[in-house]
User: Fold these one by one.
Assistant:
Number 1:
Amino acid sequence: MHVQLREINGDDIQSINRWRADRALVDHLCGAYRYVSPEVDRQWFATYLGARANNVRLAITVGHNELIGVVYLLGIDWLNRSAEFAIQIGSENWRSKGVGSIATKAILNHAFHDLNLHRIYLTVLADNERAIRLYAKLGFVDEGRYRQAIFKNGAYRDIVQMAILRDEFVMGDPPHARIESSQRLLD
């Protein structure tokens, strides 16, 4: 499987907007389900373009640039060398195929070896056991639980905080993903 990561672009907004409207997908994420119009996502993208110095937003593609998901480093703190990680495999046909693992390894490699970050953290729903197992397998450590921190589907749910430090990251086999134009990401 040939997975590539590239910076998101305006052509990706339609797919990203469709994924935000997929309640079954959003139910597995920490964010709340909201109705988001394509215009709001176009404005979101324009805002991102103005904040690229502190955010890396990459499209996950397969084959001939087929967009199947996104992976992000958000709120990069250049003093403390940390960032928040987020991933979404939007294309249902590509979920549970190993793409998330490949994309996560690739962006962690980029974070630690290209951007010289020290700590990458994430939050995940406590009942998303599959995601927690994947993150632990990749080296993320459970740092604690936010009890009843998010309201989803009529109930309060716990969130688990996990993080990985640069010296805990083991690249292992090549991630089989390539990040296009990583130098551009710092422009």
Number 2:
Amino acid sequence: MCPRPDPFNVNNNKGYNRAALIKFSSYVNKEFDFAAMKNLADLQASIKAIRYRGGSTCTGNALEKAIQMFTPSKGARSGTRHEVLILTDGHSNCGKHLSTVLPRLHAKATVFGLMIGRHSSSGKQELTSYVSKPKPNHLFAVDNYQDLKQLVTLIKAQIVSFEIPENIIELP
């Protein structure tokens, strides 16, 4: 969904974006940190290579790992805007209690949530508690992965329509 030219290419003067990814269920795994991906193609290939693993939903542990990722040793730059996107069914059932983690996460990043799948009322309430304010600007839901795929297609179409032609100079 990223615009062109490649916003992750460190050899390009527009290569200002960095991404990290954490996969979680019963266990929390850092798939890659902010220093790992040097261009959009590498980032996309790494994301596509990740496989779903069932288990519990230890959201607090994953958010704790996210906080730890916002350090220079993990490739995060200080003084920049940080954003977190949580993809979940919204219902945490193991790990650290969210009340101990969320204030520290919100101090470091703007938090977005995307709920996929069955939306229990407790799951909706929990995911709503994760995201930054105003809630409607940071919280999204789809019923299944097919709907997510359609959403991504729509977003890509919107990004293409807003891309700045390369002969136009962007001002800081």
